[in-house]
Design goal:
single chain; Jelly Rolls; disordered N terminus
Length: about 450
C-alpha cells in the first residue's frame, strides 16, 4: 500500500512538472511560416514576412517547403530571414527541415538568432560569417560523426571567418544523424527565465542556465552545399510565446543581476581609483595642473634692517615672509602632485598599450604551435625521402640479381642447345653416301637385267 502511494505521488509530481513546462503558447505570426501546411497561402513564390536570397539562384518556394539548396549543382547557398525582429524575452522556436543527398554529400544548415539579420549575416555560414552578435545552431557532419548539432555564441568581438579554430567555440552539441531519413526533422529552441534549451525530435540535445538571448534579434536560416551537394529543405519555422503583449527589450532577471554586478564592480573600481587619486595624486582623472598664475613666486620686497624700528614691524615682516614661504611650499606640492598625475596617466596609457599587445599575442597563441608542426612535417618528409632512397636501392639490387640470374640461366641453356644441335641435329654423311651408292647399284643392276632380257632368244609358240 505504501508502494502504491509513493508511485502515485511520483506520477503526480511528474505530471505536474510536465504541465508546468507545457504552458499555453501563442503563435507569433510575423515570425512564422509553414504552420498552416503551406508556405504561401496565395500560391506565390515568396515567404510572407521573410526575405529570401541565394547563390547562384534564389531558393525554390514550393507549396509546402522551401528548398534552400537544390540537389544539383553543387556549391550553392540559400537564406531566409525574418523581416521583423523578435521582441519577446521568453519564446519557443520550431524548425522542421529535411536533408537528402548522395552517399558522400556535404553541406551545413545554420539556424540564427542574430542582431542585424539579413543585413549583417546574409547567406553566410558559421565558417564564413564575421563578427556577428547572437546565436547560431549548426547542423552538419562535423568530424565524420554522421551528423551533429552544435551551438555557437558571439558577442560581436570574435571574427569567426578569420578564427584559427571555429569548431572549438561551440558551447554545446549532440549527435544526430539527419541525412536521408525520408521524413522532416524537428529542432526546437526554448528560452525561459532560467534556461536555454535545444531539443531534437522531442529529445533533449543540450541546455544551459547561463544563456539568455535579449530581444531585438532576427531569426534566420541559411544553408550551404558542398561540391557534392546535400539538398536542405525547410518545411516550417514557428515562433511562439506565452504572452503576445509582453514585448520589450527589458532583459530577464538573470541578465539584470549580471548588469548589477558589473555596475557594482565598476563602482568599486572607481572608488579605489578615487582613493588613489586623493592619497597619491595618481591615476587618470587626476586634477589638472595649476594655472601658471599660481606657480609664480609671491616675492616679498626686501627692506633694510634700519626700517624696522619696533617689535610690531619686525613681527609683520616675519609674518609676511613666513606666509610667502608657505605659499611657495604649497605651489611646489601642487606642482609635484600634477607631475605625479601626468606620470600616472602616461603609465596607464603604457599599461593599456601593453594589454592590447598581450591580447594580440593571445590571438596568436593558436599559431604558437605552427613551427613545431612545420618541423614535424619536415621530419615526416625526410623519413619519406629516406624510405624512397632505401626502396630505390633495394629495387636496384633486386634488378641486378635478377639480371645476373637470367644471364646465367640463358647462358647455360644456350650452351646445351648448341651441343644438342651440333651433336644430335647435324646431318650424317654415311647415310647420304649409302643412299647414293645404293641407288647407283640398283640402277646398274636394273640396266644389266634389261640388257640380258633383250638379248635372250625369243620363243614363239
Amino acid at each position: 500500500m505504501r508502494l502504491l502511494r509513493s508511485s502515485a505521488l511520483a506520477l503526480g509530481l511528474a505530471t505536474t512538472a510536465r504541465v508546468a513546462e507545457a504552458q499555453p503558447q501563442f503563435l507569433v505570426n510575423e515570425l512564422s511560416f509553414g504552420h498552416t501546411g503551406r508556405i504561401n497561402d496565395r500560391g506565390q513564390g515568396t515567404v510572407p514576412g521573410f526575405s529570401i536570397s541565394g547563390t547562384p539562384n534564389l531558393p525554390e518556394v514550393l507549396s509546402n517547403r522551401l528548398i534552400l539548396t537544390p540537389p544539383a549543382p553543387g556549391n550553392t547557398r540559400g537564406a531566409v530571414w525574418a523581416d521583423t525582429p523578435n521582441e519577446y524575452a521568453k519564446w519557443v522556436a520550431d524548425v522542421d527541415f529535411r536533408t537528402n543527398g548522395p552517399e558522400r554529400g556535404g553541406g551545413n544548415l545554420n539556424i540564427w538568432l542574430a542582431k542585424g539579420g539579413n543585413q549583417a549575416i546574409g547567406q553566410a555560414s558559421i565558417y564564413t560569417v564575421g563578427q556577428f552578435e547572437g546565436l547560431a545552431l549548426v547542423v552538419d557532419q562535423y568530424g565524420g560523426s554522421g551528423g551533429m548539432i552544435r551551438g555557437f555564441l558571439n558577442d560581436g568581438t570574435t571574427d569567426f571567418k578569420t578564427h584559427h579554430s571555429v569548431d572549438s567555440l561551440a558551447f554545446g552539441h549532440c549527435n544526430y544523424p539527419y541525412r536521408n531519413l525520408g521524413r522532416p526533422s524537428q529542432i526546437k529552441m526554448r528560452q525561459t527565465d532560467t534556461v536555454f534549451r535545444v531539443e531534437v525530435d522531442g529529445r533533449l540535445c543540450f541546455e544551459s542556465d547561463k544563456i539568455s538571448m535579449p530581444a531585438g534579434y532576427h531569426f534566420g536560416i541559411t544553408a550551404a552545399a558542398a561540391e557534392n551537394p546535400d539538398s536542405f529543405e525547410v518545411f516550417k519555422m514557428v515562433v511562439m510565446t506565452e504572452n503576445l503583449n509582453a514585448k520589450g527589450n527589458a532583459p530577464p532577471q538573470q541578465q539584470q543581476q549580471q548588469q548589477q554586478q558589473q555596475q557594482q564592480q565598476g563602482a568599486n573600481a572607481d572608488a579605489v581609483r578615487e582613493a588613489k587619486m586623493r592619497h597619491f595624486g595618481r591615476g587618470r582623472g587626476a586634477p589638472p595642473p595649476p594655472p601658471a598664475e599660481e606657480l609664480k613666486d609671491e616675492q616679498v620686497p626686501d627692506e633694510a634692517a634700519d626700517a624696522i624700528t619696533n617689535t610690531a614691524a619686525q613681527f609683520a615682516d616675519l609674518h609676511n615672509r613666513l606666509q610667502s614661504m608657505n605659499h611657495q611650499l604649497s605651489t611646489i606640492f601642487r606642482s609635484v602632485a600634477s607631475n605625479n598625475a601626468q606620470s600616472a596617466s602616461r603609465h596607464d596609457d603604457a599599461m593599456d598599450a601593453l594589454e592590447e599587445l598581450a591580447r594580440s599575442l593571445e590571438g596568436l597563441k593558436g599559431l604558437a604551435g605552427l613551427p613545431d608542426r612545420v618541423a614535424a612535417l619536415e621530419g615526416e618528409v625526410v623519413k619519406v625521402q629516406r624510405e624512397l632512397k632505401d626502396m630505390r636501392a633495394d629495387l636496384r639490387a633486386r634488378v641486378k640479381d635478377t639480371e645476373h640470374a637470367l644471364k646465367g640461366f640463358v647462358g647455360d641453356k644456350h650452351g646445351n642447345m648448341l651441343e644438342h644441335v651440333a651433336v644430335q641435329a647435324s646431318p650424317r654423311h654415311g647415310k647420304l653416301i649409302f643412299v647414293i651408292v645404293g641407288s647407283q647399284i640398283l640402277l646398274v643392276i636394273g640396266y644389266i637385267y634389261y640388257e640380258r632380257k633383250k638379248t635372250l632368244p625369243k620363243k614363239y609358240l
